[in-house]
Amino acid sequence: MRTVAVVGASLAGLSAARSLRSQGYDGRLVVIGDEPHRPYDRPPLSKEFLAGAVAEADLALETDGEDLQAEWLLGARAAGLDRMDRAIRLTDGRQVRADGVVIATGAAARTLPGTDGLAGVHVLRTLDDARGLRDALALGGRLVVIGGGFVGAEVASTAYALGLDVTVVEAAPTPLAGPLGEAMGGIVSALHADHGVRLLCGVGVKGLGGERRVDAVLLEDGRSIPADIVVVGVGARPNVEWLEGSGVALDNGVTCGADGRTSLAGVVAVGDCASWYDPRAGVHRRVEHWTGALERPAAAVAALLSWGAVEPGVPRPPYFWSDQYGVKIQFAGHAAGADTVTVVEGVTDDRSFLAVYRRAGHPVAVLGMNQPRLFTRWRKQLSVATP
Amino acid sequence: MIPACRLADLPRGEAYRLDIDPPVSVFHTDDGEVFAIDDTCTHQDASLADGWLEGCEVECPLHASKFDLRTGVVDAPPAKLPVRTHEVVVEDGMVYVRLSTDAPNLPPCIAARLAGGPA
Question: In 3-state terms, what secondary structure has residue A243?
């Protein structure tokens, strides 16, 4: 390969570029990113950065003096991929021809239909989003967070610490039931009530009130929640529209094998936009975790450079963390396959415990609140034990 | 030199945290080697003694940056700076640590506290 293009310049793209160099690729390397920024770390955007505790410089993912000998095309958005010559078309008309392509275009925050142009309504995905929301929160007032998932819960926690009046609205009966299951989703989301943050569950949002500026969130049951700031945290959709018609198979993201290879030879996909085959479960899964974006590019790059000759290793169970109201929440594995959840250490009411999810008696996932040491041991055991 | 613990009380694969300021941790690897590094991850306030020891590397229990126990070098984000390493001496079954005189790379929140500012 003489040219490899990495499309996407966040954690997954940077990790792919690093893997290319560390695995011996010494050809031309082009990194294309639609944001104008060098690679930065997103988890602090809903926490320390939003709270004003860390600065933008602290978010940099590259180390001082790091030089991957890459051409960085930043502020450049991919518009299409031509399968014949693996050329990436950019929206500004430029083209990048490549022998190998790493797709790492991530995901975009979902928005509420019909809310464009209404001031005071925010999503949180990018540094620019976070700058805008941080400035808005600094003015104080009433915040309504739509969506009780991890991003919504972290924004609520940060805003509470900043002194805002916070309400969280969740359409499902229990927040976080998808990633954590009903029981533990209920326990983790009880952190809101612990701190006097209102959590309204099982009610959808009908619309937003206000002319030019939002002044209320209108619920389907007829209630109207006054709001000065609204954050929409209702998940993300993979950024793959640009690949339509390219021949790269798409289905809730880029469909990939267990090593990140797509349906097109010489093209792999990593990070939030990629739906890798999970050989243990026998299904494709689009895993939107930071650790996946960090770890999986090495396997995808090995597959790319060897044209698939390298047998993929067994990936570690997915792992993610969240910080809310000063409590460290850690989770590894898949809750969906579990038939029991047992607290094996601590007490849930203390918000310091460890819970193990089992299927037919075998551990398949583990959740810790403020138990990093024990959690790490269980996570290790999980990665060894999972068949 | 600071006495840490008896080697017999530190099984392979385990770590012992010395509660000095800043804390230092002694690791006994599966291969039987003993290393000492600063206990606090350079990214955020996390105890590396609670981390995941594999070979000569320890993975932070929170965010998965791995530190080489021999050199202190970090492999991947979110941490960017190495941890300080300390010399280990084992004498008559006792593990001693000779503290480095280098400046530690502490995470921003801890550095601010040590400097007398708010935590």
Answer: helix
B64 with A15: Cβ contact below 8 A: no
**CB–CB contact A54 B78 (8 Å):** no
How many CB atoms lie under 10 A from the CB of residue B11? 9
> Over the range B35-67, which residues count as b (16 or more CB within 10 Å of their CB) and which as e?
bbbbbbbbbbebbbbbbbbeebbbbbbbbbbbb
**Average pLDDT rounded to a whole number, residues A69-94:** 96
Per-residue pLDDT tens digits for A353-377: 999 999 999 999 999 999 999 999 9
Read off the DSSP letter of residue B14: E
**Is A294 in contact with B64 (Cβ distance < 8 A)?**
yes
Percent of chain A with pLDDT over 70: 99
Q: State the fold for domain B2-114.
A: Rieske Iron-sulfur Protein (2.102.10)
Structural domain harbouring A202:
111-232
Q: Are residues A72 and A174 in the same domain?
A: no
Residue A346 burial by Cβ neighbours in a 10 Å radius (0-12, 13-18, 19+):
middle
What does the pLDDT look like over A293-329, one tens digit per residue? 999 999 999 999 998 888 877 778 899 999 999 999 9
Q: Which residue of chain A has the CA closest to B119?
A: A53
Closest residue to A291, CB basis, from B47, B52, B64 = B64
pTM: 0.93
Strands B2-6 and A87-90, how do they pair?
unpaired
Residues of chain B contacting A54 with CB distance shorter than 8 Å: 108
Mutation pick from B80, B81, B110 vs chain A, by most beta carbons of A within 10 Å, is B80
Closest alpha carbon within chain A to B59:
A376
- Judge whether A319 lies within some domain: no
DSSP for A176-217, please give it: THHHH-HHHHHHHHHHHHHTT-EEEES--EEEEE-SSB--EE
Q: Are residues A130 and A223 in the same domain?
A: yes
Provide DSSP, A272-286.
GGEEEEETTTTEEE-
- Best A40, A49, A58, A319 member to test B by mutation, with max B CBs in 10 Å, is A58
**Are residues A53 and A42 part of one domain?**
yes
Residue of B25, B42, B44 to mutate, interface with A, max A Cβ within 10 Å? B44
State the CB neighbour count (10 A cutoff) for residue A93: 7
**Which token pair is A204?**
């959808």
B108 pLDDT more than 90 = no
